[in-house]
Design brief:
- The structure is a homodimer of 408-residue chains.
- With 408 residues, chain A is of the alpha+beta class.
- Chain A folds into two domains: 257 residues, L-amino peptidase D-ALA esterase/amidase (4-Layer Sandwich); 121 residues, ArgJ beta chain, C-terminal domain (Ubiquitin-like (UB roll), Roll), CATH 3.10.20.340.
- The first copy, chain A, contains eleven helices and 14 strands.
- In chain A, strand 7, helix 5 and strand 8 form a beta-alpha-beta unit.
- The radius of gyration of chain A is 22 Å and the shape is globular.
- The model of chain A has no long low-confidence stretch (mean pLDDT 91).
- Chains A and B meet through helix 2, helix 8, helix 9, strand 12 and helix 11 of A and helix 2, helix 8, helix 9, strand 12 and helix 11 of B.
Chain lengths: 408, 408
């Protein structure tokens, strides 16, 4: 077990229960470990669901199952397996997902398509159906648990349990949103990151929930990267139990929709940042702001090119104000850029402008900034109004140790 | 200075002189080091030139200079500076290139546009004109040197001097091709890699030389990657002095054109492989073959996605047969792929087929293969006839040490 990330929050947050969500965990023993690795969330009847799933061309059967079930917009349960992603396992993998959905549906008396399943861990080993079924039965019989136990149970190589909370006032009712998430490597989600689950007691129509989640995803899960690698299992699901008693939100024009959307976006961003803070081997949390690009999309691509550059990430690890590597990463992005208009800053200190180092540039404040744990890189392309912000972490010996020694 | 790469050839190759090429080196002292860092190649009158240059949107002034000069197709000299790339240095950088070309042109009595200039090293520091001019004068006065001295003088973080030779028979004359190259990090050339120079005594029209070099580049320099980062200075130039006395080649239909093209392609591939063998921190030379893709272009993108995946590269470093990471890298490439048709091999051993691990798959021969220094990964997508081969190296603690400690 790796030490807790130096970028982790001091403690697990205080989280309220969400009415209509009952959490239970159990030991399915998908690996040779003595810890809970199966999470079961029972959801009130009438719960709406939305989701964003990996864009990988080789997705897990869980992702395919969720993609199909999401079209119906309703959920009664979520089952999460840790230690085995069940990806690239052919028919046997599909059979395992179907068995989990069937057993849960039988337990609840609902349709199998009301059961959402996500798995994370090693690729290529079919999820053992007998262990899953025994684990489920144990979970059905278990006492309900708290958020921290659930957040810890979905972890794999994560070094700390991750969760966040936000609130919104919708039609006079205060609603709560709680999210749990796991992920630390293979993080460059194309639509979503690893496994993340959001629960709210608000009443929201599934189509609107989907619209809001997709928008929130673009500026959160799709704006982070640890190592440029995209998982076959990336899944973010949002469940709205509707137990808060608010007039159901069905359109962005409804009273309270803006507030809820804002709270959901804030929650997703908090969760995404927690994943970066647990990036494998990370010692620095890096924010990259790109402005002056030809479009927001172009700014995002340039920001991700910087965030994924091994040379930028190792320079930050080495606390080296090597802004030339930022120029390199802008140049390779393939997006419109003009060398002689480019400006770069580290923290609050401008280091280059109009295509060359600033006259009389003093490296001292930059060196001081780089010694901290929270690093900011700003790039102004001087071309237009496009802007984007992404977050990443540094690339260290810790990443190599974790991934060159991890046995499948 | 880092130790010589464990993947380096046993010794520097035996290389013939190329008639019409005179090499000299000198100490310009671009950095605080006591070694030659300026290379000057004088070329016979009538030398044809072709080149491929970085696709970076933030190229060095040297790249812009060469791009303009290449349109004329003729060369009398090459000047290479090591220790300072002169990139992102504004007008002062451009002035340095112009000064070098002017002084060399004056020395030779030729046009400045006949002088090709390339620089490699730190980004953002203008190349000091006084040092360049003093270095040039010293080079003009120096005794001619051999290929090994020139190949060593263009090095920066390279751990060994790199060169290769091939021959071809053109119209009854045997012609020679010699190349030198440098590069070890910031290697994911989009058109060319770092700095590479090919010299031949063959007579070849510049348009045909360009056509052949561009084709050779696609399967050599554009098919390697060390760290996915693309330099602002990538330059490959080919010079044909025409002193061999062959009937000048002007078209691919000319006798001997195929033989010359083949020799040039072989030389470029040898040079490209040497760069991978000196990849920063590399301990394994990795060949990735992708077949069965919808097109060659699609195969190339999938192969590069595998070659650039930190998780694949760290798995190889750890000698871990983690083929699930190869699936992940195929899936994230965004190219057509069907999980249930995918087949993967390590070395000669098939590990997965039709979307799942091979029944009775024995890991022993794969583990033995991964203990070697030459690793092969094969992927068959089962979709079409597209194929591509790319080369990379593993990602190790050595890469982090070199790049997190390297001071700009």
């Amino acid at each position: 077990m790796t030490d807790r990330s130096p970028l982790a929050p001091a403690s697990f947050p205080e989280l309220p229960p969400i009415d209509g969500v009952a959490l239970r965990v159990a030991r399915a023993r998908y690996k040779a470990w003595d810890r809970c690795d199966l999470t079961y969330a029972e959801l009130a009847e009438g719960t709406a669901v939305a989701g964003v799933l990996t864009q990988s061309r080789c997705p897990s059967p869980e992702v395919e199952w969720c993609r199909a079930a999401l079209t119906l917009g309703k959920a009664r349960a979520l089952v999460v397996n840790a230690g085995n992603s069940n990806a690239f396992t052919g028919n046997r993998g599909r059979a395992a997902v179907e068995a989990i959905a069937a057993r849960t549906a039988q337990h609840l008396g609902c349709d199998p398509s009301d059961v959402f399943v996500a798995s994370t861990g090693v690729i290529g080993v079919p999820l053992p159906i007998d262990k899953a079924e025994a684990g489920l039965d144990a979970a059905f019989a278990a006492e309900p648990c708290d958020w921290e136990a659930a957040a810890a149970t979905i972890m794999t190589t994560d070094t700390f349990a991750k969760a966040a909370v936000t609130h919104a006032v919708v039609g006079g009712k205060t609603v709560s949103l709680v999210g749990i998430i796991k992920g630390s490597g293979m993080v460059a989600p194309d639509m979503a990151t690893m496994l993340g689950f959001v629960f709210t007691d608000a009443a929201v129509a599934p189509e609107l929930l989907q619209q809001m989640l997709s928008a929130a995803n673009r500026r959160s899960f799709s704006s982070i990267t640890v190592d440029s690698d995209t998982s076959t299992s990336d899944t973010v699901l949002a469940f709205a139990t509707g137990t808060a008693g608010n007039e159901p939100l069905a359109s962005m024009d409804d009273a309270g929709a803006d507030a809820f959307h804002s709270a959901l976006s804030d929650l997703c961003l908090q969760l995404a940042h927690l994943v970066v803070r647990d990036g494998e081997g990370a010692t620095k949390f890096i924010r990259i702001d790109v402005e002056g690009a030809e479009s927001d999309r172009s700014a995002h691509r340039i920001a991700m090119s910087i965030a994924n550059s091994p040379l930028v990430k190792t320079a930050i690890a080495g606390e080296d104000a090597n802004w030339g590597r930022v120029v390199m990463a802008v140049g390779k992005a393939g997006e419109p850029a003009e060398r002689d208009r480019l400006a770069i800053r580290f923290g609050a200190t401008q280091v280059a402008r109009d295509g060359l180092a600033l006259a009389g540039y003093d490296e001292a404040p930059v060196a001081a900034h780089l010694k901290g744990k929270e690093i900011e890189i700003g790039v102004d392309l001087g071309l237009g109004e496009g802007r984007a912000t992404v977050w990443t972490c540094d690339l260290t010996h810790g990443y190599i140790s974790i991934n060159a020694d991890y046995r499948s």
